[in-house]
Write a structure and sequence with these properties.
Largest sheet: 8 strands, mixed
Helix content: 25-40%
Bound molecules: adenosine monophosphate
Order of helices and strands: HEEHHEHEEEEEHEE
CATH class: Alpha Beta
Number of strands: 10
Strand content: 25-35%
CATH topology: Rossmann fold
Structural class: alpha/beta
CATH architecture: 3-Layer(aba) Sandwich
Length: about 180
């Protein structure tokens, strides 16, 4: 499992204090990890973005894919910091034009993710970003979409991994996380 090094551990502590646990949201029995306080803290957001870029830079990536919706809020600044572009992986029916689709299971539900067919140049290396890794269905679908588009998953990054759900075991790509909850 990829966990942060020493500098990352300090950051992980800071981030941990800015992620709010919300019991029974959006359904009874779910402990929701609310990253909004972290996003609202400018210096911490900047440090998180820089950390993710530095961890994934050695493997190399050409573009960042953000997963709707909180993944977008991380993916765009990561792309900006890395000097590359960003694409959106969205829930079904939100993207115009021809799309690739992949269905997935959530910790609390089921859905379909889509990616515009022309969004990724063939062979480009994609860093896939989301806020939370729970059962792994969402990231698995995002990885499948990336590969269906003819691109390569260079890596995956989340802020929080809910390790009890063992989502990582469903994924064939390397996932980095700041916090394990
Ligand atoms: P999964 O596909 O089960 O790994 O679920 C991950 C996706 O669902 C991410 O896009 C998260 O935003 C969301 N999610 C699942 N569980 C939680 C949770 N406990 N707290 C916050 N977001 C969650």
């Amino acid at each position: 499992m990829k966990r942060p090094g020493a500098a990352g551990q300090d950051l992980a502590q800071r981030v941990s204090g800015l992620i709010r646990d919300v019991p029974d949201f959006p359904r009874p029995g779910i402990l929701f990890k609310d990253i909004m306080p972290m996003l609202a803290d400018g210096p911490t957001l900047a440090a998180v973005v820089d950390h993710i870029v530095s961890v994934h830079r050695p493997a190399g990536f050409d573009i960042v894919a953000g997963i709707e919706a909180r993944g977008f809020l991380l993916a765009a600044p990561i792309a900006y910091a890395a000097g590359c572009g960003v694409v959106a992986i969205r829930k079904a029916g939100k993207l115009p034009g021809r799309c690739l689709a992949a269905s997935y299971d959530l910790e609390y539900g089921q859905g379909v993710l889509e990616l515009q067919r022309a969004a990724l140049p063939a062979g480009c290396r994609v860093l896939v970003v989301d806020d939370v890794l729970a059962t792994g269905g969402t990231l698995a679908a995002a990885g499948a979409l990336t590969e269906s588009a003819g691109a390569v998953v260079a890596g995956m990054a989340v802020l929080v991994e809910l390790s009890a759900l063992a989502g990582r075991e469903r994924l064939s790509s390397e996932v980095t996380t700041l916090l394990v909850g």
